[in-house]
Amino acid sequence: xxxxxxxxxxxxxxxxxxxxxxxxxxxxxxxxxxxxxxxxxxxxxxxxxxxxxxxxxxxxxxxxxxxxxxxxxxxxxxxxxxxxxxxxxxxxxxxxxxxxxxxxxxxxxxxxxxxxxxxxxxxxxxxxxxxxxxxxxxxxxxxxxxxxxxxxxxxxxxxxxxxxxxxxxxxxxxxxxxxxxxxxxxxxxxxxxxxxxxxxxxxxxxxxxxxxxxxxxxxxxxxxxxxxxxxxxxxxxxxxxxxxxxxxxxxxxxxxxxxxxxxxxxxxxxxxxxxxxxxxxxxxxxxxxxxxxxxxxxxxxxxxxxxxxxxxxxxxxxxxxxxxxxxxxxxxxxxxxxxxxxxxxxxxxxxxxxxxxxxxxxxxxxxxxxxxxxxxxxxxxxxxxxxxxxxxxxxxxxxxxxxxxxxxxxxxxxxxxxxxxxxxxxxxxxxxxxxxxxxxxxxxxxxxxxxxxxxxxxxxxxxxxxxxxxxxxxxxxxxxxxxxxxxxxxxxxxxxxxxxxxxxxxxxxxxxxxxxxxxxxxxxxxxxxxxxxxxxxxxxxxxxxxxxxxxxxxxxxxxxxxxxxxxxxxxxxxxxxxxxxxxxxxxxxxxxxxxxxxxxxxxxxxxxxxxxxxxxxxxxxxxxxxxxxxxxxxxxxxxxxxxxxxxxxxxxxxxxxxxxxxxxxxxxxxxxxxxxxxxxxxxxxxxxxxxxxxxxxxxxxxxxxxxxxxxxxxxxxxxxxxxxxxxxxxxxxxxxxxxxxxxxx
Length: 745
Description:
Blueprint: E1 2-6, H1 16-21, H2 24-43, E2 48-56, E3 59-65, E4 74-80, E5 83-95, E6 104-110, H3 131-144, E7 154-164, H4 172-185, E8 195-202, E9 205-208, H5 212-217, E10 220-226, E11 231-241, H6 243-271, H7 285-294, H8 297-304, H9 309-326, H10 331-335, H11 337-354, E12 371-375, E13 383-389, E14 392-401, E15 407-408, E16 418-419, E17 421-426, H12 443-456, E18 469-478, H13 483-497, E19 507-515, E20 522-526, H14 530-535, E21 538-544, E22 549-556, H15 563-588, E23 602-607, H16 613-617, H17 622-631, E24 634-637, E25 642-647, H18 650-664, E26 672-681, E27 684-690, E28 693-698, E29 719-727, E30 733-736
Parallel strand pairs: 6-7, 17-18, 28-30
Antiparallel strand pairs: 1-2, 2-3, 3-4, 4-5, 5-7, 8-9, 8-10, 10-11, 11-22, 12-13, 13-14, 14-18, 15-16, 19-20, 19-21, 21-22, 23-25, 24-25, 26-27, 26-29, 27-28, 29-30
Helix pairs in contact: 3-4, 3-12, 8-11, 12-13, 17-18
GO molecular function: 3'-5'-RNA exonuclease activity; magnesium ion binding; polyribonucleotide nucleotidyltransferase activity; RNA binding; transcription coregulator activity
Family: Belongs to the polyribonucleotide nucleotidyltransferase family.
Subcellular location: Cytoplasm
């Protein structure tokens, strides 16, 4: 259903008494206002908007069209509960010159006012997109990109601005749906609609679009995008979910998506614009025919049928040089020659795989490239491992630190303020034989790092079991397909080498796809290399243990996958994952080492009374800083009284623990301490037996024989043994040196 709401001024109801007092001029003004308002209402859609609503997972989803951002090609103001997101789609009038790809940009903007916060830092305004915002942008981008025309070169920007967040309604959902709706109703060419649904798993029951609190404790975080008939994107993190259960969840989300698509169809029917024509950048058919005459299909097959990427690249370079020489006088063809050669390679590789069942490197359809694994390849770091699959090679280094070094998060999720495990992925240009300066991690690097992190989180020990912050960094030494999954394998081994007691090893592998003219004409490939990824239709990454899936990321270049393809891809990746775990990784390192390495910090945890935290910290941190200065350790204290002492020297750590216990212990008569003389008076000496803790030794309690002056026996800084006598009348600790038991002296 929808409602039409005119933008018109409100007219007050005027009583008879007031009416008599109103001047003729004022009456004319009111009449004119009314006439203008009615005229605006009749005039058209520029002064009114349409509102559409549906029930989605027990909450109301409302879409306002024509209310705001009217100059965008398409705009939808999305309301899901109290969560509000403005989604817009805009396109340039003309194609961007000199490019051979579709220039799509997807933005997900987290406004801190949406959760009633002022941004941190000096600027006090939103700046660089958070990691979560980048990942959400990628999840919106991946299902929508294949639905735009392949020969479309106009710049398109999909922008999603989160303006209000209801903890019961995840803002990612209205942003994903809003991007699809704003594009569908715009005049931008788009083969939609598509819809996206999230699924959680609590106590064995699936939950559609779980709240932020539910997502935090869910055993499954699944996002599925669909068109009318097929699944087009899958993103998942799970606590070792069995394959059949994962498939059930995927198609539960797919069914929900069909209801949303029907809702979008109604919106498009009412508000959709006619799609604009565009300048096609398709390669002329005459050019293809001319290329085939110069480079026959058999010659192209020989060029791409090579095991090593460098050899293939050299073969294609020689073909390119020959064609550029032949077409030197045809500038129009030279401009699109690179795209034509790409398309020729693509058709050749796809035909070889689908029709001849031949892969470019000669492998069988379900064969994995040669594998190798080793640990401890980098000295002095806390843990390291290298995993190699064909020409894909990843080295992961693990670093351990106190929990105080966990990453703090500043975002819209009030339930996630920090994370203890961080996985970072780097992709330098030399890994693919190219040269370009490093400008920091891009969206791809952030996405690959997050995928590996998601895959490993389910098997990590709890903070109580292993009180460390953990960082793994995957360095790509060589890349030829599925480096993200290789980083999962390398990271698992690196964690075990560092002594992190993970519950089970995790491996990852990717499956590819080549499709024909019909849904039944397809071939699923195990362990795709770069060429099969570039020219194929799917990159289906699955990570998990022997017992179940921990992460999925599926990207496609076609308009969706049928259920048989999804099921076969999941089955193939399970078989490959089992082989990698059993035959390679577990033979390299079978289980986590029993202790952390010699260069890793050691951590001891003790529990104190939370009411005595202030005693340990001291006034303005004086006491705890004194302990740190004296022992060289790091000390973290949580609000519940858990104290973590971190250091490299066990003796120093033991001393810090002793001092903390001394400070927090209720003293009794008879306890013996070692202290330092910090003050001398005529009547005795004050001994500091722990930072911030002092007691007095009366002059009569210093020696068994009588002394006239304290200075005759003690000087400032002396270390002495004392026994506690209890508290004096003033509540101070009273000590004795002469009464220390002989066995303690």
